[in-house]
Amino acid sequence: MDRFARNFIGMSIVYLFIASIFGVAMLVYPPMTGLKFVHSHLNLLGWVSMMIYGVGYHILPRFTGRPLKSPKMAETQFWLANIGLIGMLLFYTLGVYSPDRGLYTGITAAFGLLEAVSIFLFFFNMLTTIFAKSEE
Ligand code: HEM
Ligand code: HEM
Predict the structure, then answer these.
(1) What is the C-alpha radius of gyration for the chain, rounded to an integer number of angstroms?
(2) CB 28 near ligand 1, within 6 Å
(3) Does the beta carbon of 26 lie inside 6 Å of ligand 1?
(4) In this predicted structure, what is the pLDDT of residue 78?
(5) Which residue of 66, 69, 108, 119 is 20 to 30 Å from 28, comparing CA positions?
(6) What is the reported pTM?
């Protein structure tokens, strides 16, 4: 298995663990529901999407019988997706607990944009792999 596929799967499981702590914390202490966005995106961009990236990078090229178009792009996607997610959720949380929430909006959005760039890399790499012209 490629290193980036294994790393995506490893990180997705770590995010599931952290997200479930946030989930239980919201049940135990309802005011923490202000961090619902953190819980939902640890789950959906962390656990769910990263598990799909990892399994997808391993399996989809094999299904189509073609190598992944760019392993380097997949490695870059791994870093952008993780930096984007952690940055977005960290600065969102600082915004929730800061008296001046607006201060953190721009930087939260910048990390969100980084996350979107990582999604674009997956989109491009996977589609160009699946729909590459066959050699025969
Ligand atoms: C230990 C497991 C989990 C617990 C205790 C938990 C708990 C919670 C709680 C308390 C909320 C806030 C509900 C509210 O607005 O009052 C919530 C929201 C949410 N959770 Fe979880 N959750 C868990 C696992 C998951 C998983 C595995 C996923 C997705 C794969 C998920 C996705 C979401 C989403 C998308 C929301 C936002 C829903 C909305 O806006 O209405 N959760 N969860
Ligand atoms: C670039 C990636 C993404 C960004 C920047 C982003 C951003 C956001 C924002 C700003 C909200 C509103 C939060 C609020 O009301 O305070 C939101 C809500 C939501 N997003 Fe995303 N999102 C992304 C990806 C995704 C993905 C991939 C999924 C599902 C697989 C998803 C599912 C949801 C759900 C279910 C909600 C409503 C629950 C909540 O309020 O937490 N998002 N998202």
Answers:
(1) 17
(2) no
(3) yes
(4) 98
(5) 108
(6) 0.96
pLDDT per residue over 120-132, tens digit each? 999 999 999 999 8
Structural domain including 47 reads 3-130
Query: How many domains would you assign to the chain?
Result: 1
Residue with the smallest CA separation from ligand 1 atom 7 is 23
CB of 36 shorter than 6 A to ligand 1: yes
Regarding the beta carbon of 17 and ligand 1, being less than 6 Å apart is answered no
Looking at residue 101, what is its pLDDT?
82
pLDDT above 60 for 8: yes
Residue 135 domain-assigned (yes or no): no
Are the C-beta atoms of 45 and 58 separated by less than 8 Å?
A: no
Which one, of 41, 44, 48, 51, lies nearest residue 89 by Cα? 41
DSSP letter at 131 equals T
Q: What separation in Å is there between the alpha carbon of 19 and the centre of ligand 1?
A: 9
136 within a domain of the structure (yes/no)? no
In a domain, residue 61? The reply is yes
